[in-house]
Amino acid sequence: MKLHYRLFSSVWITLFLMSFSNAQDVFITAGTTISSSGEVIINFGSGTVTNNGVIANSDGTLNFSGPVTFSGAGTTHTKNLTIAHSGTSVLNNTIEVTGSLLVSSGTLNANDHLTLVSNAAGSAVVAPVGGSITGAVTVQRYIPQGKRAFRFLTPSVTTTNFISNNWQLTTHITGSTTGADGFDTTVSGNPSLFTYDNQQATGSGWEAIPTTNATNLNAMQGYLLLIRGDRTPALITQASQADMNAPITLSATGTLTTGTVTFDSSSSPAPINDTSNSTTDGYSFIGNPYVNTIDWNALTKPGLTGTYYVWDSNMGTSDNRGAYVAYDTSSGSSAPSSSSVNRYIQPGQAFFVKNSVSGTPGAITFNESDKLGANITNFYRTETTNFSRLELQVYETSELSLGGYPIDAAVSVFDHQFTNAIENGDVTKLSTGIENISFLNSNLSLAIDARPQVVPTDELLIQLQQFKANKDYTFITHFSNLDASTTPFLLDTYLNQYTALANNAATEVAFTTTTNVLSHAPNRFKIVFQNNTLTQPDIDAALMVIYPNPVTNNQFNISLPSNLTGEVSIRIINTLGQIVYGTTTAAQHAISITPRSVLAQGVYLVELTHEGKSTTEKIIIQ
């Protein structure tokens, strides 16, 4: 039986439910549009579907419950495509999927007629595969307008044709001054597409691709690609712009990767690093092999740390064009947290992993069951954590005033499961070669420093890297879930200044560098903590004024009201609660205090007791 929709002008037929079973053939004539409304399931039991018109099933599902041959010269748009039968369905007519492709049983021969759409609204995914998918599939990766910068990408398919017929159809890929080897021409000839060879005994690992007209893309490979924008001809000859000129959609056509995928020291073309190269330092650059979101925390990864790293082009100033962001399983944190990078690795996303032991390759395995199966509306998704934490961001002051992104950031998390030693949860810093900040612990630069709960003796050593002379910078500290009894301070060792930081809010601290190298020295700053419970007053704090404060010569004065009579007791208490000085004297308008021993630099409390009541004030010893 054949169903014919024969119309001489464009007619819309609105469907709420349609089912063709028992080997029925369907013929849709040119000029006919079949449009569904809502979550409609259009089921084909088997047979041949010839679509010379338009099937617009934008919120529904196209279901093949029996082997179907789908052909014709028309177009088909559907949210979901489901294959659930024995035997093989063949596509001879293009179907565009915006939601999910599910092959639960049987075989789908895509035959170069299936497109998994990615746009501003979301990206199509391939659900866990129970059957098989053969033939070429086109996978898109939408990149919203942003900085003209590098991105970590993977094509999600192993292409059946060269880069010039895939990604390069959308954006310029350079590497020649003459246009040789398929590259777009630039005056400099600088390359814009790289892979990473972690098997090099020496060197950085980055390698420019040799050609675009004789090189294929591989679904296992991670790629570093400069995204300028679209292929507007004038763009390639202009000086480097801060931003892309337009959003783009990269397309790659080839075979999908399905089933279990393991990256190890022998996997190709992306093995896990098995060298002792101190530059590549145990890092490996791989791509998410699936067209689906993967939960990093759920992956099996023996011999690797619990951290992965990506390049976020949103980070940093317009000059920086991005920064490394790390996500760590143990702490559940990313650094910086202002990035949207988190535990969920998106389709089309490439990333670095790191061996737990240098020179000893780990492994990482992806299973179909690891797919989350969700349509992703953004390239990254966000999440929150309940750990006590600090994020330290640094901005160029001028960029901050304009609402720009931070240059860089580092994170410290505090929880009883962590120690001050280097362990799981501590994430080493990947330097961008420009201004970076990290926390220094055991001579390691950390993007995430996992520590036990804060005690008053704690210090966080901030490390500045590549900071420049004669610049204005601003730190912003973001503490969250910190014990309300704790007060953190930023210590500037260059100016000998302490700045109190809000313990559950943001604090801005501006600083300037000069030609003096100490002003941008790596160890200029650190964060110290103090317990607030030592500062609770019993009497009016206005009774006591301490000057000078900060104290610079181990001597200070206490001013008291002239009507205060009798004896007063004075104690100096350090952040451990230890009494380091004490005296009793007659109350008078001005009392000079000179501790018998020179007090170490830091924050102290001066406690005044009069007639059984006390008040305290903080002092800073410099």
Briefly characterize the structure:
With 622 residues, the protein is mainly β. The chain folds into 4 domains: 2-109; 144-249 and 258-381, no CATH class; 388-533, no CATH class; 536-621, Immunoglobulin-like, CATH 2.60.40. The protein has a 17-stranded mixed sheet that branches. Strands 35, 36, 37, 38, 39, 40, 41, 42, 43, 44 and 45 form an 11-stranded mixed sheet that branches. Strands 18-24-22-23 form a 4-stranded antiparallel sheet, with no helix packed on it.
What would you say this structure looks like, in words?
The chain is mainly β. It has four domains: 2-109; 144-249 and 258-381, no CATH class; 388-533, no CATH class; 536-621, Immunoglobulin-like. Helix content is 1%, strand content 45%. It has one helix and 52 strands. The radius of gyration is 32 Å and the shape is elongated.
